[in-house]
Amino acid sequence: MEVTTKKEENMSHAVEVSEFEAAFASRKVPAWHQLGTVFEEDVTTTEMLKLAHLSGWDVHLEPIQVGNIPSDRFARQAYATVRTNPFDQGLDVLGVVGERYNPFQNEELLSFGDNLLDGGGRWETAGSIKDGRQIFASLAMPGSFTLDPNGSNDRVDSYLLLHTSHDGSISVVAAITPVRVVCANTLNFALRKVKQSFKIRHTQTMDGKISAAREALSISFEYMDLFEQEAQALIQTEMDRADFTKLVTDLYPKPDAEKKAGVTRWENKVDTLGDIFVGQDDNQSNQNILGTAWAGLNTLTEYGQWYRNPRGGNAESTLIAGSGLDPVANAERNRQRKAVLAYAGL
């Protein structure tokens, strides 16, 4: 298996890194942050864990001591979640949790995803963010659909996204999400109350959850069917640049004139969005879907994922939003989707 490793210093906070390695692996296409190991061939779950530096963490609980105070004087015993660092083998404290907290190993999460698809998925990405406090992985699923096969021939694949934390901040989450292949945009939206995710709290166990998760995620295939219906309607709806600019300015009204810096940013945003929409940007990801409302939706999505300015130079927020893991970013995508659907009369 041939692999390559990439690193950029100005993006070094997006994923967990050592001096020369990053805890991230991606199949064929490097991610937003240009970090980690890129592999070409299909890999097993065990290989994916090793490539992404997620194996052998041995996440466990250690009781917290405060000076000489005995544990029976604690109103509630607190525990530190501790792991073995994948790069230097030292011990890291990832968070503080209660006595009911059940740590899940990275091996358990990825095996859970593999078993959900009964070995029928293909590993695409896996990584560690927030200094090891959160991990995520994705599997390409067998199902996909093609919009306008005799014209634009735009393919959308479905992915199983897995996400959890080791600091008590989030549950284990398994979610189905569509991805537009040509630009790797994660097109996850909330559609008509159709469930697309399954959660396991860290006070529970993964044992016996496979059948329940499969039942929950089978509803997500209905989600993909509904998403395809919307996408097919949008690609059949004409939209020119003037229409798209009107939609953008309705979504993001121009700031007050006295706020010159804000006006300049707004103008740059509107211009950039317009260039992406008509395929005049560097990526030209809309070339095959020009002049459609589907291009409008994908332009808004692409801008949110690939043109975000990392807060304080920290690209972690960009990675999380681009991967579909940020609820605030997801809510904004749904607002944008509703605006495009309204334009198309849906």
What do these coordinates show?
It is a single chain. It contains eight helices and twelve strands. The protein is α+β, with helices and mostly antiparallel strands. It has two domains: 3-56 and 103-217, no CATH class; 234-343, no CATH class. The strands form two sheets. Strands 1, 2, 3, 7, 8, 9, 10, 11 and 12 form a nine-stranded mixed beta sheet that branches. A three-stranded antiparallel beta sheet has the order 4-5-6, with no helix packed on it. A hairpin with a 4-residue loop joins strand 10 (172-180) and strand 11 (185-186). The longest helix has 26 residues, at 210-235. It starts with a strand and ends with a helix. The model is unreliable at 1-13 (pLDDT under 50).
Structural features:
346 residues; alpha+beta; 2 domains; 9-stranded mixed β-sheet; 8 helices; globular; disordered N terminus
Total individual domains: 2
Which structural class should the secondary elements be placed in?
A: alpha+beta
- Outline: globular
Taking all Cα atoms into account, the compactness measure Rg is 22 Å
* Beginning-to-end CA distance, first to last residue: 47 Å
Order of helices and strands: EEEHEEEHEEEEEEHHHHHH
User: Fraction of residues in helices?
Assistant: 25-40%
Number of helices: 8
Please state roughly what percent of the residues sit in beta strands, choosing from under 5%, 5-15%, 15-25%, 25-35%, 35-45% or over 45%.
15-25%
Main sheet attributes: strand count, strand direction, barrel closure: 9 strands, mixed
